[in-house]
Amino acid sequence: MFVDGAGVASKEQVVKNVAGFQLRDYTIADVRFVALSANSGLIAYRLAETGTSHGKEFAAKVYVSSLWVRRGGKWLCAFSQETAARRVAGAAE
After folding, report:
1. What is the CATH number of the domain that holds 62?
2. 61 falls within a domain
3. What pLDDT score does 5 carry?
4. Looking at the domain assignment, is residue 76 inside a domain?
5. Residue-wise pLDDT tens digits, 19-67
6. What CA–CA distance (Å, rounded) separates 81 from 65?
7. Beta strand pairing status for 56-71 and 74-84?
8. pTM above the 0.85 mark?
9. pLDDT at residue 10 is higher than 90
10. Which domain holds residue 43?
């Protein structure tokens, strides 16, 4: 499951939406991790990215949180949410 400003999307919807998506550059910062169990954890970070989506250039800064679970010896993302970062007066980039 994926949640952003457009709403909730299933894995199938996300796969369909990223077909026209090409990431050119990205930076991940302020990574934080919380172990929830031996087989799950929550990761949160700030993401800055540029690229093209369905033929249009984009640049985005978002906060991401994702829940990861280990199933069958593999780590899988079960849930992810992106929240658009807003500029706060006096805050460092």
Report:
1. 3.10.450.50
2. yes
3. 76
4. yes
5. 888 889 999 999 999 999 999 999 999 999 999 988 899 999 999 999 9
6. 5
7. antiparallel
8. no
9. no
10. 2-84
Tokens of 51: 């690229």
Q: Is-contact 68 61, C-beta < 8 A?
A: no
Residue 26 lies in a domain: yes
Number of domains the chain is built from: 1
* d(C-alpha 80, C-alpha 3), whole Å: 6
Is 13 a member of any domain?
Answer: yes
Q: Please list, residue by residue across 29-58, b when 16 or more beta carbons sit within 10 angstroms of its beta carbon and e when fewer do.
A: eeeeeeeeeeeebebebbbeeeeeeeeeee
Question: Tens of pLDDT along 78-90?
Answer: 999 999 888 655 5
Report the sign of the C-alpha dihedral through residues 14, 43, 45, 62, in that order. Answer: positive
Q: Could you give the dihedral angle defined by the CA atoms of residues 9, 10, 12 and 16, in that order, rounded to the nearest 10 degrees? A: 10
Beta-strand ranges (E) seen in the chain are 2-4, 7-9, 21-37, 40-53, 56-71, 74-84
Sequence-ordered alpha helix ranges (H) in 1-93: 11-17
State which amino acid sits at residue 21: F
